[in-house]
Amino acid sequence: MPDIAPEARAEIERRLNAIAEEEGIRILMAVESGSRAWGFPSPDSDYDARFIYVRPVRDYLRLTPVRDVVERPIVDLFDVNGWDIDKTLGLLLNHNAVVAEWINSPIRYQPDDPVIARLAELADRHFNPRGYARHYASLGQNNVARWDESAGTLSVKRYFYALRPALCVRALRMNPAARPPMALQGLMAATDLPPALANLIEELVALKAETKEAAPATRSRELETLITGELTRAEDVPERLDPARFAAKAEALLYDLLGV
After folding, report:
1. Are the C-beta atoms of residues 42 and 74 closer than 8 Å to each other?
2. Domain housing 216
3. pTM across the whole model
4. I need a labelling partner for 43 at 20 to 30 A (CA). Which of 54, 128, 165, 209 fits?
């Protein structure tokens, strides 16, 4: 499991407890997202703490709806935000890969509520592989569009923000029955990369671990060919759709959690 410095973990846990008290919510899951959980942090990377929560039943019956997100300003590299369980389930029904990534995060800031195991099972059983592939392809292509094609170097962060989505598409092509691993190292293991490319990626991980987010990396034609090629192949991933059953199971999870 990736390491989080004890003082950083303690600060995030303090902020989560304060948010729960201020908002009158119960946090069901609190995890790290972003580069620290993806397996390629820099010394100056933010802490991207994300959580899923539930409110008291009365809040879901109000005539004026309560916001379905809780947000706090980024202070001292700590970015702590969360989604209501009803928003989370709605996004999951739309095959939102972010929810699945949070579920898979290797860094947890508190023990999961038992409902999270049901949420994970729901995601495993009903996700649409092509929907996830389209999400990752769009994410990666948006990052590639920011590359300066005339430059001989590229920030290592920009490489990774296109590489990880590309490997997610590749993982879904190779095994559409499984949600892609969240961490880069798991993706590399799941995608059968040529040894030379795997070694290059590990070198980039090591470089990013020792430098700032914007540190330059020498460009690699082979790596960029892999990235741009995979990002065009989302439509090669098969679909798996069962919307009525998916929605019924998501609603049952919500009703059980609210006790209604």
Report:
1. no
2. 129-236
3. 0.92
4. 165
